[in-house]
């Protein structure tokens, strides 16, 4: 019977209603029940059941009518359309409860519960599902897994790991946690009771993990996709003025946007991919709602949806859309979403993609290019609007001549007006000339005319970055400080649009860099907001020093740094920090830039800056640049300190400011700025063309118009290309230091002085090029080609070859040698390049130098030959070989230079010592020592050596000082008197060490000489003062490095020959010393073994102490 | 009747075509059907679902309507990726719209290969008098690219249902022939499986109970 009913229903294509599962029990079904659920259409919306009761259907609601006991409403949930083989079609609808009450005996609660379908969506749900019934063990297991994953999310790994890796590791974490959950017995039991738990298990695990790790994970994603986000942000910010109508959104749907915007706030605060996706769904459904009052309306399609979403994204203040999107798609491991969600996500993706594609910019520019149509369609060519539009159009195109034409009509009109019969004459003649009756001149535009935005011509020029027009307008009296209705100056406008050239011109024309618009935004804010790094640079460098307030806040209390940090503009953040932006500024919401950051690298920058500012709290000025620049610490970067040191002479300071600006541009490798400042914009320009007659009145100080340009260029060349800063560094020095080949070649083309020296240290650019840690062969080549002198000496008598030997660049050394560099040139200390190379144990350079026939027998002022400065056995071998050859060839001539008194070689010494022993100290010193030692008793010598011995054991210092920073500092700094006076105090040794080591650190070589020369006296002192001397010797031994090493030896040697009893001990100590020498560990190891023993401030030395001590 | 294919097959169908060819009305006509064609609960047509049961095989269709405007052309791949069926609609009165269809066919074949079932639909046959695209030529073209050609009129509700049912059948067939073990799409629509199972129970029970 039921079967026949069913067949009849199919046959007649009747509609069948099926109550939702769990709302009835099947065994209670009667035929009547079945018949009540088969609906037969009688009329539109009117149906009768097979049991002949009446229902009506409207908007998916069945209203029970005649024949039913209760006239209730039943919701239709969803339908399934059946197609049979026999071409029949019928619909089955799921309804939320049975239509008739006859069959509805409610289920027990338990049955209902297990039958009720549910979906886990929130974190609370997941925790409920996973850990109900105090399932602590599972929670513990999962939490432990999560916490072990945390380190993988730290920022430090960000460079080495990609997003893909992170997705994979997160996925494996998810898998592990899921496995743990499925194995859990409690959960298993519950799953068997309620199948929906099993269905939702994946979602719950995923939600729980993502929620736990959200902060770190999301930061990681933000960092990984930072560049994409920054790009998107820049586009978004630059589109911020876009309107719904620009996007072609049907007006009826516009009312949906505010609703969706509210949902957007929710979106940001969601922490799991699922919650975020639900939020996206809400946003899009809000957009898709049909407006209440709309009647005959076209259905909403993707063509309407995308623009609305685009609008929403552009207008939103979410700085990490890409990261959000990645999070939703890549970290949703349970893949629980339906097609519906993938549709929402795709729509979002499409909108983001559309924004990124730049189509919108075309749209906007197309919009503005429509404007010129207006004048053509306007009837009267003399109407004010059309003139205005013509002018603005010409400005937009940057056509200076046309702009001039339009503006000059003003003058003509003026002239004609004057020639009128009388001011109000309307005779034919006057009419013709004047146009409009009541105010003839109104028809014309001036540079002061404004359009409907309050823009003047200057604004318009700034808007389109027409630098030439700006200059022309300025020359016509246009105001750079004019403001529009929003109080924006032209500078605001061009900063917003990112026209660097316009920004520079405007600033040069005297635009106020700190002008605020109605929102309190300064030009810097706008340039930052829209991500125009070049404009930020222009603002910073082009403005006169100390005029730009980098820390000023807008209405919301945001500084430029806040904005840069929020929108993930890494380079701008860096730039701002470098120029004194305060990293701890707070906005109206009391947020520091750090709190707004979503990008790891920026967070790092800010953290560093905060550290720096704390360190330098007393300095007043935060010079982060030192931290960033890779300047070798040979001399101090001039940058900011120099500003304050500047002499006050007004005219001179003006010039030097320009010079400073110029030098900064060079140091920032900003070629355009540099060219601009030097007036090199046109390559054909030759300074010799400019004659004195060209001097004439300029339109404005930096006008570049045709008339002024030549004069400008001449003036520009007033900046001496060879001008230097306080330390005498010229542009070339700086460019070389930055290894910027482009700028160097540019500068060299301008015939500047290649061999100019810096003030104090007297470096030529070639010196600098040769001491770069990562030397540029190209740079050196270029310099030499342009006439750099290869044998130029600095204040310490060092030539470039000394430096290249020291830094160990084979290519450069060779280049210098090929360019006839003097190979045996001595510096102030008498060291030849070979000495230098030996000091740093650079075998390759030693080879090279010897190959070019460097003289290995030369002694420095300390009487040491190169071989004595090294402990590297290979080098010793090489030099010994070279020495032999040298002697063979030149023995007769140079024998006088060789030490005649050669101490017998000790057998127990290593071969290295043997070699160096042969060339130890010169005679006089030796004799002095002898004398000193012989004159005193053995007892004290014993004491001395025991202290040397013990010293060796406890804190033998490194024998070779590789102090790169040393040459700069002055020898004068050494407090010799201090040393000598402290010798006599009990703790002199310690203190002395400190002094000397300080000195050594600062003065390197020079001190070596000093100590060495005072060697005799120290020897004497040693003897007389006993214990404290240990410190002395020790410090001597240490600081002089190579030199001292041999000094120590020679002392030992002397001692050896004098006191027999001491002999053994001395030898021992020497030996141990030498052992250390030969096995000298690589420098980097020192740092690892930091172990503070002395008060010595230099960590490098300390670490050696520790290392040595530990070796003993 | 239910047989082995008790599982719901989820298919994604993407509608492509120039604006104004009637993609939207086509899908609305089919999905919203005659029950409530006057009362749209939501007036959106960009994403609609439809459940079918073809000879016992349950099919869940997700129909994605794409943006037709030229400026959104580049967004195509985001929409049509992973789809098993594509309906390429042209207006029989508009030659250009047919050219556009040809372009889409090329793109789809390039990006999705033969995995996607193509339907070329000449819509607006109620305007037969203004026809600009020759039916024979269109049929021939469709054949040449391995697509099926249909004529429809959303306005008169002609050929709409046939189109979707036929496409569903083709997709089912493709799915069965390509991989017995089930493609990844079948696993995909988890959420809908959960819901569908609930209704499945009473539906069969009812029938069973009555038989």
Automatic annotation (TrEMBL), chain A:
Judging by the UniProt lineage, the source's domain of life is Eukaryota
Q: Which organism is it from?
A: Bugula neritina
Q: Which residues form the VPS9 domain?
A: 226-364
| The UniProt record lists the keyword Cell inner membrane | no
Output the InterPro entries linked to this UniProt entry. Answer: Ankyrin_rpt (IPR002110), Ankyrin_rpt-contain_sf (IPR036770), UPF0507/Ank_repeat_27 (IPR051248), VPS9 (IPR003123), VPS9_dom_sf (IPR037191)
The protein here is known as ANKRD27
- Tell me which Gene Ontology terms the entry assigns under biological process: early endosome to late endosome transport; neuron projection morphogenesis
SMART domains the UniProt entry points to:
ANK, VPS9
Q: Which UniProt keywords apply?
A: ANK repeat
The ANK repeat boundaries are 453-485, 486-518, 519-540, 556-588, 727-759, 761-795, 796-828, 829-861
Any Gene Ontology CC annotation: neuron projection
Recorded GO MF terms: guanyl-nucleotide exchange factor activity; SNARE binding
Record Pfam families = Ank, Ank_2, VPS9
Question: So which residues are the signal peptide here?
Answer: none
TrEMBL record, chain B:
Report any Pfam family annotated for this entry: Ras
User: Which Gene Ontology CC terms are recorded?
Assistant: endomembrane system
Recorded hits in InterPro entries, A to Z, give: P-loop_NTPase (IPR027417), Rab21 (IPR041833), Small_GTP-bd (IPR005225), Small_GTPase (IPR001806)
What biological processes does GO assign it?
protein transport; Rab protein signal transduction
Kindly give the CDD domains that the UniProt entry links to this protein: Rab21
Gene3D superfamilies per record: P-loop containing nucleotide triphosphate hydrolases
User: Would the keyword RNA-binding be found if you checked this record's keyword annotation?
Assistant: no
The UniProt keyword set, sorted, is: GTP-binding, Lipoprotein, Membrane, Nucleotide-binding, Prenylation, Protein transport, Transport
Q: Which SMART domains match?
A: RAB (SM00175), RAN (SM00176), RAS (SM00173), RHO (SM00174)
Q: What GO terms are given for molecular function?
A: GTP binding; GTPase activity
Q: What is this protein called?
A: Ras-related protein Rab-21
